[in-house]
Amino acid sequence: MENIMARTVGAVDFADGKRLYLIFDRTVDIALRPLFETKGAALQWDDEQTLEYVEPTNAVQTEEAVEVLTHLGFDGDERFIFESRASRKAMWLTGPASKLEMYDENLRASGGDDAYTPIDKPLN
Predict the structure, then answer these.
(1) Would you say 59 and 88 are in contact if contact means Cβ atoms under 8 Å apart?
(2) pTM over 0.85
(3) Which of 78-82, 83-87, 120-124 has the highest mean pLDDT?
């Protein structure tokens, strides 16, 4: 298990078995969007911040459905996996970066209330 303070190395698994790696920030429970070919490259980027943190222009156009594993130490444990989208060409997580974002996106897609909508009237 690779830990970087409150960050861990996680993975993005594509349907064809391809695995890319990412950094998951446990302080805010969100995956950082850059993807890497190896765990070592993810760790090096986190140490050096060597990649500009801007979404590549072709990321959304080349996205695929993926599963995000938030911590390599819990590979296969459903509690640490959520569905998202990513571009292997752009090396970028394009979909939800957390379970909460995934639930919110699914709720909106099904016509449900937006979890982040402010309440219009007092609760009591």
Answers:
(1) no
(2) no
(3) 83-87
CA distances 120 to 36, 89, 104, 116, 117, Å, are: 43, 43, 19, 12, 9
Element at 40 (helix H, strand E):
helix 39-48
Among 27-36, 64-73, 110-119, name the one with the lowest average pLDDT.
110-119
Helices (H), the chain: 39-48, 99-109
The domain limits of the chain are: 3-109
What sign for the dihedral angle of Cα 102, 103, 104, 109?
positive
Tokens at 97, concatenated: 């970066």
Cα distance between residue 12 and residue 117, in whole Å = 30
SS3 (DSSP) at 90: coil
In the structure encoding, which two tokens stand for residue 48, read together? 């050096």
